[in-house]
C-alpha cells in the first residue's frame, strides 16, 4: 500500500471567488496503511482535496504523489485508486455479484480469478447471501457494503471515501462505522476518508485533518485533537456540547500573570502571560460541582437542565457568559438554582482572543 502526498496543492475553481480559493496551499502526507480522516464544516474543501487525489480535479498549484510517482497529470483511471461516494451509484440492473465483478470483467480477468476475488470480498463484507439480488432488494447498509465491495475487489493502492455513511440512519451509521474500523484493521489499506461527523472522525481515524475555509487547522491523532486543539475553531468543532470559552484579560503583576474575567480570576501559566486578551476554555466534563483544592470557582445560575439518561447537562448563565457542564449526578441542581462550578486548572485551555491560536 502506498503513501499519498500533497505538496503545496491549491485549488481555485473557474468562476469561484478569487480571494477565497476552495483549497489554500496545502501539504499533507498519508502514510502507508493509515486511515486519515478529513473533517470540517460544509464547503471547507474536503471533497476538493479528495477529488484532487483521485485526479477528478486538477490542482491550480502543487504536486500530488502516490508512492514515489508524481501523478499530478495522470488520469484517474491510471492512478489505481478506488472511491466510495455518499451516493453508492450501484448499477441498478445488475445483480450484486455483477456489480462486484464488473470492474474486473472490464480488465479482462479470467472468470475463475473474478469468482475467487468476488467470493473473498463478499465473505469479508457479509454479502454472500445477497449475491444474486439486485440493489433495489437490499437494505441501505447492504447497498453501502456493495459499494465498498466494488472498491475492494480491485485491490487499489488507495481508498478514498466521501461521506460514505451520510445516507444511512443513525443506527446503521454506527454499525457501518464499526464495520469500516474492523475492515481497516484487517486490511490495513491506505484510506483517506471525508466526513463532517466528528464521531466518525474520532472513532475511525489514525490521524485527523481538520479543515476550515480551505486551510488545514490541525493534523494529529484523535486524542491530541481533542485534548490539545490548536485553535478556537478546532476546540469548538470537536466535542458535544462544545468547549466553554470565557473571555479574560491578562494582568501582569509581581507574582506573575493573572487572567481576570467577569466573576473569576486565575493564575495564568507562563505560556499565556505575553497575551493581552485570552479565551479560557474548558470542556463540559472538566468542571466539577464540588469544591476541589486548587480549583477555580465560577458562579452561575442554572437556566436549563437536560437529562440525557446516563448524564445531565446543566446550562448556566454566569457573569462571564453562558456555560455548560456535564455531570452524572441527576440530583445536582435544579433550574433556577444558583450553582458554583469548579474548574480543574490542569484541564484549562488558553487561546489568544485575537489570533485564536492556542497559547
Ligand atoms: N465545481 C466547482 N466550481 C466552483 N466552485 C466549487 C466547485 N466545487 C466546489 N466548489 C466550491 O469550493 C469550496 C469547497 O467545496 P468542497 O466541495 O470541497 O467542500 P466540502 O468540504 O466537501 O463541503 P460539503 O461538506 O458540503 O461536501 C466550496 O466553497 C464550494 O462551493
Ligand atoms: Mg463534500
Report on the architecture of this protein.
- The protein is of the alpha+beta class and 359 residues long.
- The chain has two domains: 4-236, P-loop containing nucleotide triphosphate hydrolases (Rossmann fold, 3-Layer(aba) Sandwich), CATH 3.40.50; 243-352, OB fold (Dihydrolipoamide Acetyltransferase, E2P).
- 24% of the residues lie in helices and 33% in strands.
- The chain has eight helices and 20 strands.
- The strands form four sheets. It has a six-stranded mixed sheet, sandwiched between helices. It has a five-stranded antiparallel sheet with strand order 13-12-11-14-20.
- Helix 2 (96-106) packs across helix 3 (111-125) and helix 3 crosses helix 4.
- The longest helix is centred in the middle third of the chain and has 18 residues, at 170-187.
- The two termini are 38 Å apart.
- The model has no long low-confidence stretch (mean pLDDT 92).
- The structure holds adenosine-5'-triphosphate (ATP) and magnesium ion.
- Residues 46-47 line the site of magnesium ion.
Task: Give the tags.
Rossmann fold; OB fold (Dihydrolipoamide Acetyltransferase, E2P); 2 domains; binds adenosine-5'-triphosphate
